[in-house]
Amino acid sequence: MSGTGTGEEPGARAARARALALLRIRGRATAVALLPAALAVVLFAAGARGFADGGGWDAARWAVAVCAVLVLLIAGAVALAVVRAKPAVSPTVPLSESAAPDLYRLVRELADRLDVPAPSAIALTPDCDSWLEDRSHPAAGGPTRRVEAAPVLVIGSPFLWWMRVAELRALLAPVVAGTSASAQSDIAAARRFVRGLDGAVADAAAPARGPVRRALRLPRVFVGRIARILLRSCRGHAAEMERGVAAAASSRAREVDYGLRIVAQEQVGLAYAGWDRLLTRVALPAWRMGRWPAQLGAGVVAALTELSRRDRLAEGYASRLGERPACDLLEEPGAADEAASLLAARLFHGGPAETGPHWAPVDWQQYPDEVVDRKWRSEAARLHRVLDAMGVPPATAVGGVPTLARVVEHLEAGETGGEELAAGILAAVAREEAEAQARETTPGGPSGPDAGVSGPGAPVSLGDRSAGALGDDLLTLWGTDPLPLFPLQPPRTGTELLADHVAAMVCCAAVDTAGAAPGLDWLDGPALLVDGERRADLGSPVLSLIEDGDAGPLRSWLASVGVRTDKPVRLA
User: pTM of the predicted model, to two decimals?
Assistant: First the structure.
């Protein structure tokens, strides 16, 4: 096995050339730091030999010596910061070999066919992507012999559930081929140098916590600026080096399942579409209510199945499903799915690492009652609270009991009724979100692991699902602050929020007065089931009522479903 990846692929030779350029930058920086010290040695040696006598030479020698000491101290501080900087590590779910022996065997066989070193480990990420990640730095829990350590193969969890085994092998071939670069000493050293600079810059920009770090704030900022200058000079070479590595990996993998890889890439686009719809339409409402779907992998299969059925996006879909899915390579697919689903909730919504009364998993069978029905009734309750605050009288038919008639009559009564109610809903949602955020950040408040408050914590490691394993923090890059939130949807306007609330009130009335039921649509999220069939035609009548005050379309829709507007509706 060559293992170096140089000599055959032009991309590998280009990557090595860029790596040498990066190492030359490191060498020049070292030479600049040693230059004053070398000059001081020359001056002192000349004075000892009698070649540079006199008061002026003595002053020059000591001035250069002081300058050399200062430069060496600064260089030492920068070198120490680069060496000790914690590299950025992607949050993943570690997958041990005992939890996926078949998957490890597939990857090793693929590495043998490609004549490259096998990855040192495999991990899952809740995203539609796969890559190699070097975790040989001691801060990442890797070995100390960093040059010889192979990178970790990170696989997107949606791929395991949607891809077939042959498709996954073809998709991973160019990724696994990239391990050849880790065995090349120059490329590995250049990568460590760049990652160290990047970590030093990030450490200098991080907020100071503790009296020692606050006292060293100015030196940290100064060291960070020097590291930033070096990193800026390395940026172009580093980017070209990684392009060369990718080109070499792609060229090496061309002989392995190339035709099947084209088909697999088509499935990647489909997986992106289904995963996005599942997160934004299905998972997000549950996360906002303190529930996290525990089987997102199985959910993406259901969503993509429905997407393929509706839009006919998958050619030969039925025959493809007869092949072995990639998740069969895992010993416990359900446990892996649950771990990746919890990590997805943490990354995309900021949920905690442990479950509790206010942050609990939910199965798909429980989703309609635990999420959909609760969502509708909480929004209907908020709608009536805003109407109460506006002084809108209750419906006369049943006194103070909340009814759908109260909402409809108010919106069709006046021209400004909808605008005022939309502003009230928008303000109420903003106020409740601010209050929830304040409770999360209040010391001594309900911010523990059982309170559903976002905070750092380790991803669930398969094979060790104890509370202690959950408490090990692999995400120290974020410190003690909650994980950064990645908004899945843009902020909504007051009219959009009002439409959601009115539709929720209509759905509650349909459930309580017409025998309808909450349901789940894999592509659109919460759904109303009437006689077991999904009704998706509620949006247009609701918008006509809100925007134009025309209740005719909605009343016709209610009559077709059999909803009584004058009957009481149970709220949250």
Answer: 0.81
